[in-house]
Amino acid sequence: MKFYVIGISDAPRPYFPPEVISIICKGRVFSGGKRHYGLVSPYLPVGAEWIDITTPLDAVFEQYHDEVIVFASGDPLFFGFANTIKRKMPDAEIILFPAFNSLQMLAHRLVMPYHDMRIVSLTGRPWPEFDRALIDRACKIGVLTDREHTPAAIARRMLDYGYDGYMMHVGEHLGNPDEERITTCSLEEAAERDFDYPNCLILCGHAKARHYGIPESEFALLDGREKMITKAPIRLLTLQALELPQKKVLWDIGFCTGSVSIEARLQFPHLHVETFEVRPECEALIEENCRRFGAPGISWHIGDFLQAELENLPRPDAVFIGGHGGHLKEIMARVLTVLADGGCIVMNSVTSPMVHTDSHQLFNEACAELGLAQEPPTRIILNDNNPIEILKCKR
Fold this sequence. Notes:
There is one protein chain. Strand 12, helix 11 and strand 13 form a beta-alpha-beta unit. The longest helix is centred in the C-terminal third of the chain and has 12 residues, at 359-370. 29% of the residues lie in helices and 25% in strands. It is of the alpha/beta class and 395 residues long. The protein has three domains: 2-99, 3-Layer(aba) Sandwich (Cobalt-precorrin-4 Transmethylase, domain 1); 103-205, Methyltransferase, Cobalt-precorrin-4 Transmethylase, Domain 2; 216-394, Rossmann fold, CATH 3.40.50. The strands form three sheets. A seven-stranded mixed sheet has the order 13-12-11-14-15-17-16, with helices on both faces. Helix 9 (232-241) packs across helix 10 (259-267) and helix 12 (328-336) runs parallel beside helix 13 (359-370).
């Protein structure tokens, strides 16, 4: 297979250099989106075959044969269709004629250097990479949008989580001299506006300093009980035990206020975080705390973990058990049904004369019964609090 992949802008009358015109004139099979066909149809030879690029893409690729000329938006290697060809047909020959991508064009219109811009695509994609850019405090973020992840939706998400120190530059119909429009506005203004599609945007500004070791008193607390929350030094040592720089998916079972998950999300924004809690009143707490500390992207599940539907959730390679309600062995056994190879389980055990059930002993018994390899516990005494042991095992 051989592909000529030609990048075009939104201009109603595309310009093609002579070499590309020659390729088009000799072509027989062409492909692109419906919008692309409307732009390039006057240039196609009589009798040309056109294949619409629609989902499912497997059906599109089944129609490709011999030599295909594909029209794509902007630079086809920039979140574009050339990447799809390389993934689905790694042996295909690709000859590329790129145009400027939309974010380049917007930066050009703004006379804005863009070598330091963090790029995020929300076109047909969920929020995690955008959330990560915010948590990383990127000062300049270029965003490719779609009809769901609009400039207004993006602005509202940023405001909800306290990332309000940015201005938004929106480019609509870039490359179309009759419809192109550039708008610079605050997030508050963008949240209330409708922008024509297609569009893209650049965010410029700064965010507040990232929290590290959040004091317990700053969280929204369960019944105002500060002692119910994992203390900041213990929290940070717990994250160290979970080996989070190397992990991909963290499950927090018994999240209560969400302190461990929020700290993990802020320090390791690459993580996918799923949390579980049996007490329904904790849902409002974790939602409030996520917004208070700027930690978007944490998913929570309210109800008994032993009854929760886990099949469609990403498999964890790190699990923190913050509460077990006397069912530690059953919880660990269920975790083991989904824990990735090499994954670890960590919990904190409080040594107190007021606690009649020894969590450390239950943990040891569970590890022995389930064949989990334990690591030496870390024992900590913080101020005048009861000693805490950080317990850890691996699959």
